[in-house]
Design brief:
The chain is of the alpha/beta class and 365 residues long. The protein folds into two domains: 227 residues, Type I PLP-dependent aspartate aminotransferase-like (Major domain) (Aspartate Aminotransferase, domain 2); 119 residues, Aspartate Aminotransferase, domain 1, CATH 3.90.1150. Helix content is 38%, strand content 12%. It has twelve helices and eleven strands. The strands form three sheets. It has a seven-stranded mixed β-sheet with strand order 1-9-8-5-4-2-3, with helices on both faces. A two-stranded antiparallel ribbon has the order 6-7. 48% of the residues are buried. The mean pLDDT is 98. Bound molecules: pyridoxal-5'-phosphate. Pyridoxal-5'-phosphate binds next to helix 4 and helix 5. The site of pyridoxal-5'-phosphate (PLP) has 15 residues, from helix 4 and helix 5.
């Protein structure tokens, strides 16, 4: 039996008739940039996330860059973040001439360890950028409390956490700004690139909106240096269709995760969920010291798995200039050696899931 890590065709096939209608609607309207569908999507996404403003942008990476610019981050400023994330989180900091100031993660949730943040704050620190990794909300109360006491802003990377909650509130309106990615494999994915910024802050909303369209409050009139990063109207139309099903998609992920937990908890480290967070399992990530052998064994059995992420950011060649050697962030480094994400996508059948479980049990004998 073949079990891919993710099956996008199984995910999209039942929605094809609606996608076709949406495609025709957008082409007939001839509105391809922003336009009505995009406005509707921003409104529906903001309502779903229970946040005042949503701004559709080109992708999650641009969303991060726009937010950092809106927060006034520039050369020499420091942004605190986790070294255990996708490169985009740190890349945008560096691209603005700022410095990523890493803080190690908690080994159970893989999210930034709030207890380690304060010791790393300097007089150059401007922003804390926590990631809701794998779809689990990070410990926001502790982070917001530190930010308040040190006069820092909080930008959340929710690229993997659309629909996740913290203390029963949806991720998206907890800090100053939040970003989401609609990369096709994300738990809410477009049929191409896409991203979103959300905020309850009117001033930051206006700034982000300006930055996404060349700093232009009206046509051919520019007040700040911006960029060009808008959510395509066609992607907004597709996302409106998928947004209607996001709770069901997330529930199916959770159902798969709970079944894995039950069957695997005695042989590998299954994901820990913080009592204040719900986990929507964008990724279902286990830990084992025999990760590489297990990956090879599962791949030979035609089971797709992902490694998110093998190299923590402070060990990436591109960031070697920071001089952060082996041992700088031991939890992130250990996680990089041990993590493995199993297929958890909503359409995974019980038969496929049981096959994955049986192969893992067979591996451990
Ligand atoms: C944690 C995290 N941040 C940022 C991004 C960047 O999003 P995008 O690929 O839409 O630019 C991603 C997605 O790949 C991500 O996983």
């Amino acid at each position: 039996m073949k079990v891919p890590q993710i099956d996008l065709w199984a995910h999209h096939e039942p929605l094809m008739a609606e996608f076709r209608q949406a495609f025709e609607r957008v082409v007939r309207s001839s509105q391809f940039i922003l336009g009505q569908e995009e406005k509707e999507f921003e409104f529906e996404a903001a309502s779903y996330l229970n946040v005042k403003h949503a701004i559709g942008v080109g992708n999650g990476t641009d969303a991060l860059a726009i937010c950092l610019k809106a927060l006034g981050v520039g050369p020499g400023d420091e942004v605190m973040t986790s070294p255990f994330t996708f490169i985009a989180t740190a890349e945008v900091i560096v691209a603005l001439g700022a410095v990523p100031r890493f803080v190690d993660i908690k080994p159970d949730t893989f999210n930034i360890d709030p207890a380690k943040i304060e010791a790393r704050i300097t007089d150059k620190t401007k922003v804390i950028l926590p990631i809701h990794l794998y779809g689990q909300a990070t410990e926001m109360d502790a982070i917001l409390d530190i930010a308040k006491r040190h006069n820092l802003r909080v930008l959340e990377d929710g690229a993997q956490a659309f629909g996740a909650t913290y203390k029963d509130k949806k991720v998206g309106g907890l800090g100053d700004l939040t970003i989401f990615s609609f990369f096709p494999t994300k738990n809410l994915g477009a049929l191409g690139d896409g991203g979103l910024i959300t905020t309850n802050n009117d001033e930051l909303y206006e700034k982000c909106r300006l930055i996404r369209v060349h700093g232009s409050p009206k046509k051919y009139y520019h007040t700040i240096i911006g960029q060009n990063s808008r959510l395509d109207t066609i992607q907004a139309a597709f996302l409106r269709i998928k947004l209607k099903h996001i709770d069901r998609f997330n529930e199916l992920r959770i159902k798969n995760a709970e079944a894995y937990n039950e069957e695997l908890k005695d042989i590998v480290k299954t994901p820990a969920v913080h009592p204040d967070s719900n986990h929507i399992y964008h990724q279902y990530t286990i830990r084992t010291s025999r990760r590489d052998e297990l990956k090879k064994f599962l791949n030979e059995a035609e089971i797709g798995v992902g490694i998110h992420y093998p190299y923590p950011l402070h060990r990436q060649p591109v960031l070697s200039y920071l001089g952060l050697g082996e041992g700088s962030f031991p939890e992130a480094e250990a996680a990089g050696r041990e993590v493995m994400s199993l297929p958890v996508y909503p359409e995974l059948s019980e038969e496929q899931r049981n096959y994955v479980i049986s192969k893992i049990r067979e591996f451990f004998g």
